[in-house]
Design brief:
By secondary structure, this protein is α/β, with parallel strands linked by helices. The chain folds into 2 domains: 203 residues, no CATH class; 169 residues, TPP-binding domain (Rossmann fold, 3-Layer(aba) Sandwich), CATH 3.40.50. It is built from 18 helices and 6 strands.
């Protein structure tokens, strides 16, 4: 039985690794997700079979409740709410790891021999500190994710909340939590005092999670989400050390490493360091869709009818999706327009910026939902040289990721950030509800370019109008 259990866990780990590898590409992402899900199913079934003295009723109850919540979310949560849901998923993983570690302590609290043994002597010198670290990382992940959710959902301001002395307070909370962990693991022998220290440690982690995320602006939410995803994996891996579960250690390590790699890619896509994201307080706008023409003098406007006239003869079109596409839930209309242009002989592609939207891969998910062919989704580095040979670029709600100031204005807060070079196309149609700034809170120089025409309105409504005009022509 022990050999079969080990082989089953090994199979799970292999499925996780291959699943993660398949998820690296849009075309194979669904297959990768399925492989990883099968791996998790194998791990869960193996654990249930191998675990003795388990009340299966609680397991079934948990499966039923979790499945109902997941099914409800899958049906009810719109694609615009996907970043918020991912944030909550990260937080759920973090608090689950922390609670499992805490439950493990209370299950074995009677083994402390009346206050003569430390946690390290009961749980081994490796499990005791990782239990404390699981509480710390899991607690930070939970409340940090809740704050990220609140910012994304508009429950609190998306602008940075910069408290005085926040860096000192964060260091004090981190140092205090680590000290509590050391005391609980290696010094204290009283089970009651040990439980109090662990509870205070978890509370300190909760507060630290809030303090770490509230200073981060909406512009950096893709980075925050990927980093919190990494934290949830690290917390799970720590809990794996506590439970002596090899498969949980491997699974958590994979999630943690993948999250860190993705975080690094997000930072490079914005030409900023992780430290600058976490401590820079970048992004001052809430991107509510409000705003006027303040700061703009030469903006040119076009109607959907006028835009359709240019699109009639376009031989090459690049569509740039942004968060406005998600807000309007216009991905299906976007696919319909692209298909119509192709029928008229145009080559249509979709330019994907790594940080467009509010979570990593946000635009890929939206367009995949509308069954846009994978081969038409082109990453930034590959598509940028093509703009200069493109008849029309259509910008759907994107803002900072197409702002020429990133390459032309050294004084701009986004100077050096890699952007989609839509301004090089012969004609640019920027579809937005207003001239409001993006999450960076700055003016978009593209709006005043000679070859740019603003088409004001809801992205879905404008796209449907373009489709009608083209079909009638």
């Amino acid at each position: 039985m022990q050999t079969l259990e080990t082989l089953a866990y090994l199979l799970s780990a292999v499925l996780f690794i291959f699943g993660l590898k398949r998820m690296a590409k849009v075309r194979t992402a669904r297959q990768g997700n399925l492989l990883a899900a099968v791996g998790m199913l194998v791990a869960i079934v193996t654990t249930l079979v191998a675990t003795r003295n388990i009340d299966i009723a609680w397991v079934v109850a948990g499966l039923v409740v979790g499945s109902l919540i997941g099914a409800f979310a899958a049906v009810k949560v719109p694609m615009t709410g996907m970043p918020e849901m991912v944030a909550l998923f990260n937080g759920s993983g973090g608090i689950a790891s922390a609670l499992v570690a805490l439950a493990y302590y209370f299950m074995h609290q009677g083994a402390f021999s009346g206050g003569r043994l430390t946690m390290a002597e009961v749980f081994t010198a490796g499990s005791a500190p990782t239990l404390a670290l699981s509480l710390l990382v899991g607690g930070v992940t939970f409340t940090g994710s809740v704050v990220a959710y609140a910012k994304l959902a508009g429950k609190i301001t998306g602008a940075p909340i910069l408290l005085p002395g926040r860096h000192f307070l964060n260091l004090a909370l981190l140092a205090g939590a680590l000290l509590l962990g050391v005391l609980a693991a290696f010094v204290v022998t009283s089970p009651t005092l040990m439980a109090v220290l662990l509870a205070v440690l978890l509370l300190a982690a909760f507060l630290l999670g809030v303090m770490l995320v509230i200073p981060i602006g909406g512009a950096d939410m893709p980075v925050v989400i990927s980093l919190l995803n990494s934290y949830s994996g690290i917390a799970a891996s720590m809990t794996g050390f506590v439970l002596h579960s090899a498969v949980l250690i491997i699974c958590g390590a994979l999630v943690g490493a993948a999250g860190l790699i993705l975080t690094n890619l997000m930072c490079k896509a914005m030409n900023r360091s992780l430290a600058n994201v976490l401590f820079g307080g970048f992004g001052t706008a809430d991107s509510t869709g409000q705003g006027g023409k303040e700061g703009y003098t030469t903006v040119k406007e076009a109607s959907p009818e006028e835009a359709a006239m240019i699109l009639e003869d376009a031989q090459s079109v690049i569509i740039v999706p942004g968060y406005g596409l998600a807000v309007a839930q216009a991905q299906h209309a976007c696919k319909q327009l692209g298909a119509l242009l192709e029928e008229r002989g145009a080559v249509v592609r979709y330019a994907i910026h790594p940080v467009a939207g509010r979570m990593p891969g946000h635009m890929n998910v939206l367009l995949a939902e509308a069954d846009v062919p994978y081969e038409q989704l082109v990453e930034m580095d590959e598509i940028n040289p093509e703009f200069q040979n493109t008849d029309v670029a259509i910008v759907l709600g994107a803002n900072d990721v197409v702002n020429p100031a990133a390459q032309k204005d050294r004084t701009s807060p986004i100077w050096g950030m890699p952007i989609l070079r839509v301004f090089e196309a012969r004609t640019v149609y920027t579809i937005k509800r207003s001239l409001s700034p993006g999450f960076a809170g700055i003016k978009n120089e593209l709006f005043e370019y000679e070859n740019n025409l603003m088409v004001f309105g809801d992205a879905k409504a404008v796209l449907l109008k373009l489709i009608d005009e083209l079909q009638e022509s």
